[in-house]
Amino acid sequence: MSSTIIQCQQLNHVYAGKVALNDINVELEAGEAIGLVGPNGAGKTTLLSILSGFLHPTSGTVSLFGQPPGATQLIGKVSALPQDARLDPSFTLKEQFIFYARLQGYTTQQAILEVNRVLEAFALSEAADEKPGVLSHGMAKRAAIAQALIGKPTLVLLDEPTAGLDPVNVRTVRSIIAEQTSSTTFIISSHDLAELDRLCRRILLLENGRLQIENIQVDEQQSATRFITLQMESCPAPEMTAKLAALDGVLQVTNPQKNEFVVAYNAEKHPTMDQQLMQCLQTNHWQYRQLSHGKTLEEKLFFSE
Amino acid sequence: MIHASLLVEDKIMQPGFFNHLLLICQFELNRSFATRKGLLSMVTFAVIWYFILLYPLRFAAGIAVQDHGLNQHFSLFDFIGLGSSQHWSIPEFDVFWQLALIIFPMLSITMAADQTCSDRARGTLRFMVLRSSRDRIFFGRFTGVMLIQALLISAAAFSTLALVLSRDASLFTAALSDLFALIVNLVLIVLPFTAMMAALSAQVKSARQATLWAILIWTFMAGIVSGLAYYVPGLDFLKLLIPGYQLSEVAQLSGWQALQLAYIPLIQSLVLLTLGRWIMTRQTL
Question: B234 or B184: which carries more pLDDT confidence?
């Protein structure tokens, strides 16, 4: 997959005098899931709303698969989980989902099959005949995500999909997204950076309405300086920082937060740095929780020099 | 299960405008006739109509039947202001016509108030807009509400026919043409009211707001336009913009002749639907 799915040119949006999106120029291709991050009020929901056709931009152009947002040619191709949108309280989940599937072009029989599949995937089969009003917050959220996956959309825009879900359901959502990434491009707006780190290779960083694209893994692999993140059980931070810094090939050691250390090293000269670190930890009897290559997404996006 | 989805995926057809209109209409009919809230509203309407039929309508029609025998030029309805210069051939329909001209436009303002507003406030409209266009939703909802009103008008008219037949079964053939004239005329009369509510519903956040705005706009518009027309008679044509403007004249007509003023609600509906569509297209969902 390498076709352009989203194109924004000089996209601006202003809410009551406040700039929400400032001259966004971006072209995104189909492929791995794309994360959309940024502080509260950065314009993430505004951008997703414009892409979904819920909101008209103040100026600039947007196209999805060469069509303007909301075009009928995009029916069944583009889907979304809008933030805070609730289903109709008068109808059961199944009734509404069948209606949505019918709007997407399914016959009644096909719609029933498809709705059963989606409800089952999100463990909502038992709630199929319930009205949204009686569902718990987590179930309502899963139902809202489930509607986005009716049919086989090529592009799915998810605004805070895991917010408010318990860990088991977060895992369910994650595995469903991972299963479909071969045929569907997901754009996921979230504050859960660990979640995005697992799912996305490309990150769109929105800050003060301006967009920046981070191709994280590619950037790291191309650089001679690489990083290892160590998460420790309790340990003497100054002593550990000093000992790690003294290792051959280590360029820098930082301690961004309690019990977390980021080691910068020259990968060309010292490709087995992970083993050296493990040996150092063992010699000093320090217990580690996790050793991972690269920085955390949080470090990459917000604390990189 | 994934295989099932893939199998059906190949045969998916992109639905057209009228297909969506039909689906949205059907969903609205289900909302009115197959949900608890909808059924409650229908039962309430049925009970109220039953009492209208049983007491004011039957009582007034009884007097009208007597009047027909005594004096063609004066009746109780003329006396209380519900009279018409052209009488319907069936007295019960005469009374029904006068009552319906008041009841159904009022019912329309309340029934058609929530075409899109609460769904937009709740976010439900976003789920729909991903699968349909704003135009299709706007016109689909409007058609759905019109269809429901047409069914209620028909039910009320047929119940009146039953009342007529209970008095004199031989009137069946004569009553049939008038019955259809009543239904067609009343559907046309509620058309601009429903279009006005569609436009308001696309703008405001709740059905209550839509109803309040409808009453305010209608009252002020009628007052302002009448005032302007009084001082500048050339502006009299502006009255055409007020839904229901023609009601007092229509009340004087009967049968298919009442259709001679049908152009007024049709023009009003066209203008209001264009305005509503314009609002809907620009509205943030």
Answer: B184
Say yes or no: B20 contacts chain A, CB-CB below 8 A: yes
**Cβ-defined contact of A100 to B127 (cutoff 8 Å):** yes
Q: Which residue has the higher pLDDT, B174 or B7?
A: B174
Decide if A65 touches B, using CB distance below 8 A: no
Is the CB of residue A151 less than 8 Å away from at least one CB of chain B?
A: yes
Q: Find the range with the poorest average confidence among A29-38, B61-70, B85-94.
A: B61-70
Which residues of chain B lie closer than 8 angstroms to A70, CB-CB? 129, 133-134
Give the pLDDT confidence score for residue A194 in this predicted structure. Answer: 81
Question: Which among A226, A225, A229, A204 is positioned nearest to A214, based on CA atoms?
Answer: A204
Question: Which token pair is B124?
Answer: 């439900």
The CATH 3.30.70.100 portion of chain A extends over 224-302
Comparing CB atoms, the residue among A53, A96, A106 nearest residue B12 is: A106
Domain extent listing, chain B:
16-282
Q: Is A106 on the interface with B (CB under 8 A)?
A: yes
Task: For the domain made up of A224-302, give the CATH fold.
Answer: Alpha-Beta Plaits (3.30.70)
Q: Which of B123, B128, B129 sits opposite A86 (nearest CB)?
A: B123
| ipTM at complex level | 0.85
**Tens of pLDDT along B181-190?**
999 999 999 9
* Cα dihedral value A283, A286, A292, A297, nearest 10: -140
Where do you find CATH 3.40.50.300 in chain A? 32-49+72-218
Name which CATH class applies to A32-49+72-218. Answer: alpha beta
Cβ-based burial of B64 (10 A; exposed 0-12, middle 13-18, buried ≥19): buried
Q: What size, in residues, is chain A?
A: 305
